[in-house]
Design brief:
The complex is a heterodimer of chains A (about 1200) and B (about 200). Chain A is an alpha+beta fold and about 1200 residues long. In chain A, a hairpin with a 2-residue loop joins strand 12 and strand 13. Helix content of chain B is about 50%, strand content about 20%. The chains are: A alpha+beta (about 1200), B alpha+beta (about 200). Chain B: It is found in: Cytoplasmic vesicle membrane; Golgi apparatus.
């Protein structure tokens, strides 16, 4: 042995340690990979040795190599070996390695469960700590489930070091095992008030993280957090809480009102920038949530904006950045207060820091108005010219387009200017956003009718100079604009001055170098142009000119026919044939123009990108239903049409892409087949072919969408009109700058005319608001658009709203944590416990005070209790804010600053007095009612004040009046949702009294569990009723042949089981004991004793309390859901024996009756029809129990079926007793 | 939540990586490379926040980094973290790592440190600080970190756990680390070679 060790240490002399490895890698810079592979070989040898120190050293090196990108998963087992070393040094190395490379897919991870459990319960806090740290990185759903209970126990560890880690890791456990959230939550909440700041901070952290994802479930914690916020001095905790409030305020505006004041105080007082910043952020969130209701917060806004300005002006770039970030949030709701700082923002555009420039750009988006749009865009254009690096320039480009196109081109007064801006943007070198510009051109040209003439002129010029745009290869992005240009020129060819010239430009040989999809559009629009020219020439009776044009096409089209692009080729050859046919007709002097142009008759209207999705599915059409059952699974054909539809789906999701425009345009009056756009036709035809070949395709009757398309006339297209001023005509191709100048002049003229127009102004204002409901400043109203503008809104199916609430991502891992935490714990919701031991209870004392009751009835009860407690405890103190959120929110904040609008409300005072007085009179018996409870506290509050300060009375009353009524309304909906269908259930508790004396009161409940047959858990709530401190509690029972108490290993049947806690005066807690039961068909009783030491000032005494534990047959049943078909099968099987009872004189409603049976007897309702219900439950030994409950006039009959007749008759007897009390 | 913590040097060589979400080694390296690419091309006097940590998570994420001498300390966080708070945390972590792994630094810094950690006015002092650092410890700190990655990891583990900030009180962290190191020393093994301490 000794020799082996010596040998081991000699071997180690030659082993590399981590430092050697690092040094070695540094010394082998040129052949690093080779050196490392050599090292890995050595490590493999080291791992084969028995010496744990050698192994640990090897694993340590592996961890380093993992960081460099080497896969070390092959050593997973060795890592586990090192993790299970007894020495902390090695353990730490092992856990570190595991945390770096283990994940859910690591298969050996399941081997770690027991090791981790062992480490978690290790006496050394650092073993536990290191295990928790490691686990936090690689916890899997399995580990989470198996260890949840252990970790929860650690949350109450004596060492804060362990507590804080256990609390923090619970978040990871919740994520992986959402079922644990509800059982663990009460304790987590408890930790918010842990004496150790670290633990407190951890709990805040976890709850903030939870609440961020599902804020509404955590609203009820607001009072607690509020208290923490006003008491904590830890900036980190404060920041977290303040951030959390930012997430909560949108859900509860009253909370916001309460927050403003303390937050403002913090803003004024704190020196920590991080805290100041978060306060400002949350105040902004509050203001946003209040913006609808409370206009009088300009002071707070001013404060925020002013503080932010200080941040932005700071030389520290970080503060500048954050200031801009927060500013953009204010901008959304209070644009005016931000607009005042335009200078600052524009200044930031020149900053050297790109992040800051981008933020400033974001802000600009909200700052534009009709008045300053041109000026701002001009400034941006100069930045575009100056910008180095394409990313920033592209960002500028998209921002310019965003700014201009926002809210339906709201701020654009002159579309000619906008088109020329777009054209100028096409001169950008190497931008990726050609398609964006193209989409804008198309959109504007289609939707703003008045601009078409101008747009067409610009576009034809663009086509003419296409060689500039498409010349160099790195400008390929920008050539997208040619797509738009060609389409606009073709579609609106009637506005072209020189159509022939444009036609020739589009037929140049150079065009064939463009990308395929653009060529395709060229080809298509050449025909449109051609049709227009033919018509023109024929009207002028210039037959030879018409033939010349035809000839030109016949000559030039073949270059497209040879295209490698299928689409281009197909279109070109199709059109070539058409033109050749026309040529023949022309040769015979037949007028053809009419027919050719009828190919493109009608107008294309924009269709909203989401319109297709909004088309309602016709009634009775089940898209998921099979028409024919599928033939076999391996049918590959049915994937094809799917793929095709998916393709379409994608197109819809990127509406800006030019290709999508084809789909978004529906030609309104297709008078014949040829009237449809041939491409669409082709596509549709192709689809039809596909579908014809596909046996599974559902041939629908014409869809509503199609019918909609066919609907004749343009009249139904919503057109918003603004009829002002005369169009501005500018010849040639003007620069956007010219427009700015002209615009200024125009505005100046307008201003002069303004007096004259004053009368008309009102009318215009009305129109203005009709167009856009959003932001309008007065100065905006003064500026009239330069053109007569009809912005055609996009088509949508009837009743469909354009805004689309996109569904939440179903894969969101946080969705599973959207759990109602205010609901009391159900019996089934306990964390899985590994061993049969007296696990420390999973409930907080607060929960235990209150016996489990049904959901709805619990609220008032709980409050009532708490209230009593409070009165007992804090008699002399000011009544503290209750846990109840509504109450908390309805009370006034500590009255430091009086509300500004204080004295206006004298009239309401008298009325109010009566309202307030009433409940005060009934104070003694006002306990049961929620509303009364609510009003009582304010009234008390008031009483105190009343004595103190008479002047404050009216205000106080007014406030309570103002706030109490909304409380009542709201109490109805959010708190008690779900169970509103029938009358409220009476309070129910499954805990019954076990024994009681002057020291202690014991109540208990028996629960079976399906996993461990023949075992039941007895939960005993122990309540200290004395002034003594109770400790060394021990519970013992006299085992019977049938039932035995599970005792810790190694103890005899006469030993008691210690209760794992002590009870200070007035405190209660719950302990659980496991019993093993042989036969469950009979009820039975066990005698037992609780012994304890009661200690008070005079000394300590041994005390005893005897009790009888009653195991009813019911307690062996476990609520198990059952589906009606399974239930029917069970009844049909005939294995069950039957028995029945009848109880008379029942007045309770059937609903409540069922609830009572479910609750007290652990049944679940399978089906309920009128006054008849079938119910099901299962015993811990697997007996099925089926019930049929029928309600007569004043009686109830219960027919039962069960696999054991004795069990059934006993159960029914017990049930009879329960029903007799109904 | 903190999604990842990275340290790499001016050449993009990783010196420490901690991912709080599972990624394959290849993806991890790719993330490090791209983060380096993003961070390294930024000037010295620009803000310490970078949007669009596209690789980890989505647009909700931010990169918060600090550049000390030859090292970049980068945190990838989502919107639940306070930007300035994290910056401060990096600062504390950095100095304490130094204090623990680099003997040479310990003697120089405590006075500075105690002042700085007391208040949060870190930001204004930051520039002065980095400049001093750059002068004095050009290579020292990087080497110290390289050879003692495990120790830096241990300090980090006391600060951040599973992507959430565990402790911000530096005294508490130092106490725990010291206690653990003491424990480690007490576990002397007979076969320990003197090389271990070299």
């Amino acid at each position: 042995m000794a020799l082996k060790m010596v040998k081991g240490s000699i071997d180690r002399m030659f082993d590399k340690n981590l430092q050697d490895l690092v040094r070695g890698i540094r010394n082998h810079k040129e052949d690093e990979a080779k050196y490392i592979s050599q090292c890995i070989d050595e490590i493999k040898q080291e791992l084969k040795q028995d010496n744990i120190a050698v192994k640990a050293n090897a694993v340590c090196k592996l961890t380093y190599l993992q960081m460099l990108g080497y896969d070390i998963s092959w050593a997973a087992f060795n890592i586990i070996e090192v993790m299970s070393a007894s020495k902390f040094t090695f353990k730490r190395i092992g856990y570190l390695a595991a945390s770096q490379c283990f994940h859910e897919g690591t298969d050996v991870i399941m081997l770690t469960t027991n090791q981790i459990r062992k480490d978690l319960s290790s006496p050394s806090q650092y073993d536990t700590g290191v295990a928790l740290t490691g686990l936090s990185c690689f916890v899997t759903p399995d580990l989470a489930r198996d260890l949840a209970n252990d970790i929860m126990t650690l949350m109450s560890h004596t060492k804060p070091y362990i507590r804080k880690k256990a609390v923090l890791i619970m978040y990871k456990v919740f994520l992986k095992y959402p079922e644990s959230l509800r059982p663990a939550f009460p304790r987590l909440k408890e930790k918010l008030e842990d004496p150790d700041p670290g633990v407190q901070s951890a709990a805040v952290n976890v709850i903030c993280e939870l609440a961020r994802r599902n804020p509404k479930n955590y609203l009820s914690l607001a009072p607690l957090f509020f208290k923490l916020m006003t008491s904590s001095t830890n900036n980190w905790v404060l920041i977290k809480i303040i951030k959390l409030f930012g997430a909560l305020t949108p859900l509860e505006p009253r909370l916001g009102k309460k927050l403003i004041e303390p937050l403002t105080n913090l803003i004024h007082s704190t020196s920590a920038m991080s805290l100041l910043y978060e306060c400002v952020n949350t105040v902004i969130a509050v203001l946003i949530s209040l913006s609808s209701g409370m206009p009088n917060h300009s002071a707070s806004i001013q404060l925020c904006v002013q503080k932010l300005r200080i941040l932005i002006e700071d030389s520290d770039q970080n503060l500048k950045y954050l200031g801009l970030l927060a500013m953009s949030k204010i901008l959304r709701t209070h644009p005016k207060s931000v607009q005042a700082h335009k200078d600052l923002v524009l200044q930031c555009l020149d900053d050297k820091d790109e992040s800051i420039r981008l933020r400033a750009l974001d802000l600009l988006y909200g700052m534009v108005s009709k008045k300053n749009l041109m000026e701002i865009v001009k400034k941006l254009m100069t930045h575009v010219d100056k910008a180095e690096g394409t990313t920033y320039r592209d960002e500028l480009l998209t921002k310019i387009i965003d700014i201009c196109s926002q809210s339906n081109y709201q701020h654009i007064t002159n579309f000619e200017w906008y088109i020329s801006i777009l054209v100028e943007l096409t001169r950008l070198e190497g931008t990726r956003h050609g398609h964006l510009i193209a989409a804008q051109m198309l959109d504007v040209a289609i939707r703003v009718k008045a601009i078409r003439r101008f747009a067409v002129a610009q576009m034809s010029a663009l086509l003419d100079s296409a060689h500039l745009v498409a010349s160099s290869p790195q400008r390929s992005g920008i050539c997208e604009v040619l797509y738009a240009a060609a389409w606009i020129c073709g579609e609106f060819s009637e506005h072209l001055q020189e159509p022939q010239q444009t036609l020739e430009a589009m037929l140049r040989p150079k065009v064939t170098t463009l990308p395929g999809h653009i060529q395709a559009v060229y080809v298509q629009n050449v025909v449109k142009l051609y049709a227009a020219i033919l018509q023109q020439k024929e009207q002028a009776a210039d037959a030879s000119a018409a033939q010349e044009v035809t000839q030109l096409l016949v000559e030039r089209l073949p270059q497209f026919v040879q295209s490698a692009d299928l689409e281009v080729q197909e279109r070109a050859s199709c059109i070539l044939q058409l033109v050749k046919h026309v040529q023949k007709l022309q040769a015979k002097d037949v007028p053809v123009a009419e027919e050719v142009s009828s190919l493109f008759a009608g107008e294309l209207n924009p269709v909203a990108p989401k319109a297709q999705k909004k088309v309602p599915i016709p009634e009775g059409l089940d898209l998921d239903a099979w028409i024919n059952e599928p033939l076999s699974d391996s049918e590959s054909e049915d994937e094809k049409p799917k793929a095709m539809f998916q393709d379409e789906e994608q197109r819809h999701t990127k509406p800006r892409a030019p290709e999508a425009d084809e789909q978004e345009l529906a030609r309104v009056r297709p008078d014949s087949h040829s009237g449809l756009w041939p491409m669409l036709l082709q596509r549709r035809e192709a689809r039809r072919q596909e579908q014809a070949n596909n046996p599974f395709y559902i041939k629908s009757s014409p869809s509503p969408q199609k019918r909609y398309q066919d609907a004749p006339g343009v009249e139904h297209i919503p057109v918003v009109q603004i009829d002002l001023s005369v169009p501005l005509k500018v010849p040639g191709m003007p620069l956007s700058d010219q427009y700015v100048k002209l615009e200024e002049e125009r505005r100046h003229r307008q201003r002069l005319e303004k007096d004259k127009r004053k009368k008309k102004k009102r009318e215009r204002e009305r129109r203005g608001t009709r167009r856009h409901s959003s932001l309008h400043t007065e100065s905006d109203e003064d500026i009239a658009p330069a053109q007569r503008v009809d912005i055609i809104t996009e088509e949508m199916p009837e009743n469909a709203l354009p805004s689309d609430e996109d569904d939440k991502d179903p894969n969101d891992p946080y969705r599973a944590l959207d759990i109602d935490l205010d609901k009391p714990l159900a019996d089934s919701e306990k964390l899985p416990v590994q061993k049969h031991r007296n696990a420390e209870t999973s409930k907080s004392p607060e929960k235990e005070d209150v016996p489990l009751v049904e959901k709805k009835s619990k609220k008032p009860r709980k409050k009532e209790k708490k209230h009593k407690e409070k009165e007992r405890e804090k008699k002399k103190k000011e009544v503290e804010k209750g846990e109840d959120l509504d109450f908390w929110l309805s009370t006034t904040p500590p009255p430091a600053t009086p509300a500004p609008e204080e004295l206006e409300v004298n009239t309401t005072v008298t009325v109010l007095k009566e309202e307030q007085e009433e409940p005060r009179g009934e104070e003694q018996d006002a306990d049961e009612d929620r509303e009364q409870d609510l009003e009582k506290k304010p009234s008390k509050h008031k009483k105190k004040k009343h004595k103190k300060d008479k002047e404050e009375r009216p205000k106080d009353k007014r406030k309570s009046k103002k706030k109490v009524p909304p409380t009542d309304e709201e109490a109805a909906e959010p708190v008690e949702n779900g169970t509103l269908d029938e009358e409220p259930l009476p309070p129910m508790s499954s805990y019954t009294l076990l024994a009681e004396n002057s020291y202690i009161k014991m109540t208990y409940d028996v629960q079976g569990s399906l996993q461990k047959d023949s075992q039941v858990t007895v939960s005993v709530v122990l309540e200290n009723q004395s002034d003594s401190f109770l400790k060394s509690m021990e519970l013992n029972v006299l085992d019977s042949l049938n039932a035995r108490l599970a005792r810790p290993e190694g103890s005899s049947v006469h030993d008691g089981v210690p209760v794992p806690f002590q009870l200070p005066p007035g405190i209660s807690n719950e302990a659980q004991f496991v019993f093993t039961i042989q036969s469950i068909v009979m009820a039975q009783k066990l005698k037992g004793t609780l012994s304890f030491i009661a200690k008070n000032d005079e000394g300590s005494t041994h005390e005893k309390l005897d009790f009888k534990l009653h195991f009813t047959c019911t307690s062996y049943l476990v609520t198990t859901p059952c589906y009606s078909d399974a239930f029917a099968k069970l009844l049909e099987s005939g294995d069950l024996s039957m028995s029945s009872i009848k109880v008379d004189g029942i007045s309770m409603s059937f609903h409540n009756l069922l609830a009572k049976i479910c609750f007290h007897h652990h049944f679940s309702v399978v089906e309920r029809v009128d006054s008849c219900a079938s119910m099901y439950s299962r015993s811990i030994q697997g007996h099925h129990v089926c019930l049929l409950v029928k309600k007569g006039e004043k009686s109830v009959s219960v027919d039962g079926k069960c696999s054991d007749p004795t069990l059934l008759s006993n159960l029914l007897e017990e049930m009879k007793e329960t029903l007799a009390t109904c | 939540m903190i999604k990842a913590i990275l340290i790499f040097n001016n050449h993009g060589k990783p010196r420490l990586s901690k991912f709080y979400q599972p990624y394959s080694e290849d993806t991890q390296q790719q993330i490090i490379r791209e983060t380096f690419h993003l961070v390294s091309k930024r000037d010295e006097n620009v803000c310490n926040f970078l949007e669009g940590g596209l690789l980890i998570g989505g647009s909700d994420n931010k990169l918060i980094y600090r550049h000390y001498a030859t090292l970049y300390f980068v945190f990838c966080v989502d919107s639940s973290e306070s930007e300035l708070g994290i910056l401060d945390l990096i600062q504390r972590w950095f100095f304490h790592s130094l204090e623990h792994v680099g003997n040479s630094v310990v003697t120089v810094f405590p006075l500075w440190l105690s002042q700085i950690f007391e208040e949060e006015g870190v930001l204004s002092m930051h520039k002065v600080f980095v400049e001093t650092l750059d002068k004095c410890f050009e290579n020292v700190c990087e080497l110290d970190l390289i050879f003692h990655v495990d120790k830096v990891h241990n300090i980090l583990a006391e600060m951040v756990m599973g992507g959430m900030v565990l402790e911000t009180n530096m005294n508490e962290i130092v106490t725990q680390i010291d206690a653990q190191n003491k424990l480690e020393k007490s576990e002397t093994f007979i076969f320990q070679s003197p090389r271990q301490d070299r």
